[in-house]
């Protein structure tokens, strides 16, 4: 079955710097890759996603890139702010979301 | 629209007890799923449903049962609770084929003693 790895497990950046989180997946049939943000004690919330027929997607300060050949995808956050501090999870799914496998998460801390 | 709701918010059980975690959505979503979240392990899929009357196992189904008699409700049953089932449980739903965005409930924190 699908296996999703995520690195780094923790990341600290200075406010205003960029943050990059990387995920790799094992099943070449995966075709949908969402990223979720989870604040302490809260539910995961979708922040951006990408389908396998797209190489890059951007939404304001957040972007996701996908390399199908290498089976990895990355989350890029520019101009980080303290409110970006949270745990970020990547996921991969086949059949455009029928079944999701999540990475273990990255705890991002944005230092003022 | 309440979205995805879960009850209870917090529960303490003794080993061997059974209970049902409730999940409901009012968005007429076809797909619903149950995940458990443990420290350092992300979210793991327990069971999922692609419509009323249809359920299937996820990555970690042992010790859990589900049923989907209506579109709105997707309860998760713990048959005989074990300390290893101490976790935070999230229910999620999404509209259906071609609509990938998944919405999560607020979670149920379960402690099994």
Explain how this protein is built.
The complex is a heterodimer of chains A (112) and B (113). With 112 residues, chain A is mainly β. Chain A has strands at residues 4-7, 10-14, 19-25, 32-38, 45-51, 56-59, 62-67, 72-77, 86-94, 99-102, 106-111. The N and C termini of chain A lie far apart (41 Å). Chain B has strands at 4-7, 10-13, 19-25, 31-37, 43-51, 54-57, 64-66, 76-78, 87-94, 103-104, 108-112. In chain B, the strands form 2 sheets. In chain B, strands 2, 4, 5, 6, 9, 10 and 11 form a 7-stranded mixed sheet that branches. In chain B, a hairpin with a 2-residue loop joins strand 5 and strand 6. Chain B starts with a strand and ends with a strand.
What overall geometry of chain B do the principal axes of the alpha carbons give?
Answer: globular
Number of helices of chain A: 0
Integer-rounded radius of gyration of chain B: 13 Å
Low-confidence stretches of chain A: none
Order of helices and strands of chain B: EEEEEEEEEEE
- What integer is the average pLDDT of chain A? 94
> What's the rounded overall pLDDT mean of chain B?
94
Helix content of chain A: under 10%
Q: How many separate helices of chain B?
A: 0
What is the makeup of the main sheet of chain B?
Answer: 7 strands, mixed
Structural class of chain A: mainly beta
Beta content of chain A: over 45%
Rg of chain A computed from alpha carbons, rounded to a whole number of angstroms: 13 Å
Helix vs. strand class of chain B: mainly beta
- The share of residues in helices of chain B is under 10%
The unreliable regions of chain B are none
Instruction: Work out the oligomeric state of the chains in this entry.
Output: heterodimer
First and last CA, distance of chain A: 41 Å
Question: Which shape of chain A, going by the Cα principal axes?
Answer: globular
Order of helices and strands of chain A: EEEEEEEEEEE
